[in-house]
Amino acid sequence: MPRHLANLLLLAAGAVWGAGFVAQSTAMDNIGPFLFIGLRFLVAALVLAPFAWHESRNSSHPVSRHHLGGFALIGLVLFLGMALQQVGLTITTVTNSGFLTGLYVVFVPFITLLVLRQPPHPVIWPAVLMTFAGIWMLAGGSLAELNTGDLLTIACAVMWAVQVILVGRFVGPSGRPLTLSFVQFSLAALLGLGLGLSTEGFDLAAVIATLPEILFAGVIATGLAFTLQVIGQRYTTAPQAAIFLSTESLFAALFGAVILGEQIPLLGYAGGLLIFLAILLAELGPMVRPRPAA
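^ thats the sequence. predicted structure below, dont judge the formating
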């Protein structure tokens, strides 16, 4: 798959995740955060199961224990990130959650460099700075007063950064993106349902009332978007993937304004433009080759 097509898949995943913030927020009107996480990932795992089975049938070799362990680790990190984000959404706004979650675009290159000793392409650094500045501008240039929900979402961004890096490490060598998605969804569903049923209880009427959000989050925002992520990351680097996926903050602000009536300041529109310029830089910059010396 060409790199530009892989990046387009990652951009589509970011757009779907942005819309998912609205569903995550409105779902909290009826059920608790952990039960919602468990149900959305259960739906996603059930939807993806036949595709993962088909991938397994067509593979020339079984998944190694090493790769299965990596898939499980990704699932654990996915659950931790989603739990921090979901609980944070009970305190902060969709717009704030969107742009603070996007901070993982800053964390990915540093973790990649410091832990894996893999320096990114030089053009990624100005793109990261532009993306961070755009996310900050989406908030109206005001990060001075962070509430508990904001702090939880920043911790979530660290988990997302780790998840993006781990997917990049395991999806290529294993060659099993659908199996990876199925394993991480299944583990997140088990952890979410276990915590949700033990601490929040189960109200069938409340679950039925939240069914539209559960189905959208499970089928579209989880099953489709995370699968687009793992497929796209097979053909691009983790820092570039983080930049494209971080556009979820832009789409979260957009859907929050259109559906929930949250206001986007004028500076926020400039921030959105800056994010897209960063995407273009990340997409086109690596294609530029220095001219050979005369």
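The chain has a mean pLDDT of 83.
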